[in-house]
Amino acid sequence: MSPYPSLVTVSALILYFVVTINVGIARAKYQVPVPQTTGNLDFERVLRVQQNTLEQLALFIPALWLFSTYVSPIWGSALGAAWIVGRIAYAWGYYQAAEKRGPGFAISSLSGMVLILGSLVGIILSMVK
């Protein structure tokens, strides 16, 4: 098996770790005590990035591995790298203003959908053979 999907998986987990750390930093910066999750819009955007990234990881990681197994580890890894770039753009934009999250969301959503649908096609084709 190719090491590239593993590298993409670790990169995605590092990205999640970074956005999680950003929540702790934002708590201190905007003085939002635990367990409070509302009250400061700047903090709420940072928290939303972390929550949305976690939600997306539940779809992304299995789709990455299924695509890499049934279609192509190289193409799966390239789509996975695009997903990571999209999530970084999403976070960067959302940290600034909610309206700026769109391009990153589009990039990560499109690459994620290709991974999911491609996995389905690859699995079906392997069953037909």
From TrEMBL:
<dbReference type="GO" id="GO:0006691">
    <property type="term" value="P:leukotriene metabolic process"/>
</dbReference>
<dbReference type="InterPro" id="IPR023352">
    <property type="entry name" value="MAPEG-like_dom_sf"/>
</dbReference>
<dbReference type="GO" id="GO:0016020">
    <property type="term" value="C:membrane"/>
</dbReference>
<keyword id="KW-0472">Membrane</keyword>
<keyword id="KW-0812">Transmembrane</keyword>
<dbReference type="Pfam" id="PF01124">
    <property type="entry name" value="MAPEG"/>
</dbReference>
<feature type="transmembrane region" description="Helical">
    <location>
        <begin position="105"/>
        <end position="128"/>
    </location>
</feature>
<dbReference type="InterPro" id="IPR050997">
    <property type="entry name" value="MAPEG"/>
</dbReference>
<keyword id="KW-1133">Transmembrane helix</keyword>
<dbReference type="GO" id="GO:0004602">
    <property type="term" value="F:glutathione peroxidase activity"/>
</dbReference>
<protein>
    <submittedName>
        <fullName>MAPEG family protein</fullName>
    </submittedName>
</protein>
<feature type="transmembrane region" description="Helical">
    <location>
        <begin position="57"/>
        <end position="85"/>
    </location>
</feature>
<dbReference type="GO" id="GO:0004364">
    <property type="term" value="F:glutathione transferase activity"/>
</dbReference>
<dbReference type="InterPro" id="IPR001129">
    <property type="entry name" value="Membr-assoc_MAPEG"/>
</dbReference>
<feature type="transmembrane region" description="Helical">
    <location>
        <begin position="6"/>
        <end position="25"/>
    </location>
</feature>
